[in-house]
Structure formats: structure tokens, C-alpha cells
Specification:
By secondary structure, the protein is mainly alpha-helical. It has helices spanning 2-27, 33-60, 68-94. Helix 1 (2-27) packs antiparallel against helix 2 (33-60). The longest helix is centred in the middle third of the chain and has 28 residues, at 33-60. The N and C termini lie far apart (45 Å).
Length: 95
């Protein structure tokens, strides 16, 4: 149970960090950066938090492996945020 839980934790952390880094760089240039970062970031973290909670809940209820749908949601959102961050980070820092 510890290894699948560590995998879910790693996928959730990767999604949180990749989205937070990109939108933190966007919010740092705004006038009200303390307000803008949560407003930009929170809606985008809903799929990451939802997938992590559903997978962790299934593991804590005794499942051998986490269900496929939450893991698929985490992988897709992580890849999307990583690709978006990789392609757009230089542009965000220049503007």
C-alpha cells in the first residue's frame, strides 16, 4: 500500500508544483499579486486535488491499486501543465 500511495503523492505534487510555478511567474508581474495567484491557481488545481483525493481514498479503503480514472486524470493534468509550463515559461518571464 505504501508504494501506490507514494506514486499518488508524487503525481499530485508534480501537478501542484508545475501549475504553481507557471502561474506564480504570471502573478508576480501583476499589481495585486497576493490576490491574483490564488484566483489564477485554485481553479486549475481542482483536477489535481480531485484525482489525488479519490486515489488516496481508494487506497486507504483497502484497494490494492488506485482506480484508473483518478490516476489517468492526474497524469493528463500533470503532462498538460508541464508542457504548458515548458512552452510558455520563457514568454511569461519576458512579458
Amino acid at each position: 500500500m505504501a508504494l501506490p500511495l507514494a506514486g499518488v503523492t508524487a503525481l499530485g505534487s508534480l501537478g501542484l508544483c508545475s501549475a504553481g510555478t507557471l502561474f506564480g511567474a504570471i502573478a508576480v508581474r501583476t499589481r495585486f499579486r497576493e490576490v491574483m495567484l490564488p484566483l489564477l491557481l485554485l481553479p486549475l488545481l481542482v483536477p489535481v486535488i480531485s484525482g489525488s483525493v479519490r486515489a488516496t481514498g481508494a487506497l486507504l479503503e483497502g484497494a490494492e491499486t488506485p482506480p484508473f480514472e483518478p490516476i489517468q486524470l492526474l497524469i493528463v493534468t500533470d503532462v498538460a501543465y508541464l508542457v504548458l509550463g515548458f512552452l510558455g515559461f520563457e514568454y511569461v518571464l519576458d512579458e
